[in-house]
Design a protein that fits this description.
about 190 residues; Putative HTH-type transcriptional regulator; transcription; about 5% strand; Tscrpt_reg_MarR-type_CS; Arc Repressor Mutant, subunit A; 6 helices; globular; two-stranded antiparallel ribbon; about 60% helix; 2 strands; mainly alpha
Length: about 190
């Protein structure tokens, strides 16, 4: 089977049932350029975002507890990174502070997040997950992980691990690039 590197519809598992037959890092099939690889990756990322969007629309905008899905992103940051101020959350999630404030009001009303005095500046407050917030976060994480395990159930373990490693590498590269551009923009202003 000849695969056009720009065809984002072709599954790498199509004939072989394995990712192993694909060209490795730093290698290219005859005539395939870095731009071709970047174009194919871009197409796959768009497909991934669309698939995630469809999954989210099946779940609906609101979770079973009435929280908007965005509130779970706020809760994730607080559980994962610890208590923090609203401004830091807005920067982390790349969302307006007013949106974070609305989400945190909902999380506080549901008893998942609490406001505490900032240990550095007692006049300010930080947001922190409650025990119930951690429980809800863990339940959602287990559900997500169960779903991902089902999606990849037929994949060999080494391919699941490889995908995870490559995604970590990609996300780290994107984060570094974004941070460098943000720093350069801030310095030019």
């Amino acid at each position: 089977m000849v695969v056009d590197a720009r065809d984002s519809r072709v599954s790498p598992r199509a004939e072989s049932g394995s990712l192993r037959n694909h060209v490795g890092p730093g290698e290219h099939s005859a005539g395939v350029t870095e731009q071709d690889v970047a174009d194919r990756l871009g197409g796959q990322l768009i497909r991934l975002m669309r698939a995630i969007g469809r999954t989210k629309s099946h779940i609906a905008k609101y979770g079973p507890d009435g929280l908007e899905r965005l509130a779970y992103s706020v809760l994730f940051c607080l559980v994962h990174d610890g208590p923090q101020r609203t401004g830091k959350l807005a920067d982390t999630l790349h969302i307006e502070t007013s949106t974070i404030s609305r989400q945190t009001r909902s999380l506080v009303a549901h008893g998942l997040v609490e406001r505490r005095a900032d240990p550095v500046d007692g006049r300010a407050c930080v947001l922190a997950p409650t025990a119930e917030g951690v429980r809800v976060f863990e339940e959602n994480r287990r559900n997500r992980n169960r779903w991902l395990a089902e999606v990849m159930a037929e994949w060999p373990a080494d391919e699941r691990a490889r995908l995870t490693d490559l995604l970590e590498l990609l996300v780290s590269g994107i984060e570094e690039s974004t941070a460098e551009k943000s720093t350069a923009t801030a310095e030019s202003n």
